[in-house]
Amino acid sequence: RYAYVNGRFVPHGEAMVHVEDRGFQFADGVYEVVTIIGGKLVDERGHLDRLARSLGELRIAWPVAPHVLKLLMRRLIAQNRVRQGTIYLQVTRGVAPRDFKFPKHSDSTLVMTTKRATSFATPEQLENGVKVISIPDIRWLRRDIKSVALLPQVLGKQRAVEAGAFEAWQLDPEGNVTEGCSSNAWIVTETGTLVTRCANNLILNGVTRLSIIRLAKEAGIPFEERAFSLEEAYRAREAFVSSASTFVMPVTRIDDHTVGNGRPGSFGERLRQAYLDYASGEGAS
Ligand code: PLP
Q1: Record's Pfam families (predicted)?
Q2: What is the whole-number distance in angstroms between the Cα of residue 184 and the centre of ligand 1?
Q3: Is the dihedral of CA 269, 45, 73, 182 positive or negative?
Q4: CATH code assigned to 2-116
């Protein structure tokens, strides 16, 4: 297996960045995770658009032109013979003597790795759904930037694992769910409306989220983009999370509450199928 590091394809075990890389020193960088199905990239356009936005907000220069990045991703996927899995790419402000302010001169660092996956969800997860716990959202207020500063998410995921859960839903000070640690949060209300939080600085606007919204609208599913409370989620008919690597994952337990009848619901199943069809069809490139 190979990794890409600043212009070179190197054996994974020898892939390294400098100790004074600002990604390492300050988490001064951004990333994307793109799913690969049938050797093709899923929703590449959405991920590159969001990368452009993250870089722009932080005033980090593109490490290579976007069309070159596309070629490099494909070369790494081909070289590692990944038919199904994910590609991770990280861009940092580059290497410079340690100092908080932006360096006058630095070349952005680009690192890419791939991961194979035999499946994106276990049969058990799809059959029974997963559990999520709720935790306070202790992150900064620019969650719209896909920053590599992920310590709150690391702590949140660890709490989830220790509670036997798949994900942790983060709560704002009003008690509304912002999103998962690495996924967006969705519910289907008691009256059958699909709800997910609106995308502003308080959540990461998932690329999968955007595709699901479009697919739901196309399918004529009643949809509202708004905040929802933990209590509303407890009472929901259905719940699920979305991300590039899980698509639509049914949630059947939130803290100590059973969601709906405790089984994955029909809205989630429909949207998962619609997303899978899209991801292996027109959404792949
Ligand atoms: N929200 C957060 C905080 C995330 O880290 C992620 C993905 O890692 C998502 C949402 C889902 O985004 P996407 O669908 O683009 O994977």
Answers
A1: Aminotran_4
A2: 6
A3: negative
A4: 3.30.470.10
Bridge partners, residue 224, by sequence? 195
What distance in angstroms lies between residue 183's CA and the mean position of ligand 1's atoms?
Answer: 4
The CATH number assigned to the domain with range 123-279 reads 3.20.10.10
Sign (positive/negative) of CA torsion 100, 16, 59, 226? negative
Cα 275 to its chain centre, rounded Å, is: 15
**pTM of this prediction exceeds 0.95:** yes
Catalytic residue among 70, 115, 146, 157: 146
Residue 131: beta bridge partners?
A: 253
Segment 117-127, tens digit of pLDDT: 999 999 999 99
Residue 146 designated active-site: yes
Nearest CA to ligand 1 atom 2: 182
Per residue in 132-145, pLDDT (tens digit) is 999 999 999 999 99
Is any ligand 1 atom within 6 A of the Cβ of residue 212? Answer: no
* CA-nearest residue, atom 7 of ligand 1: 182
To which residue do tokens 């059959």 refer?
Answer: 127
Largest Cα span, the chain? 58
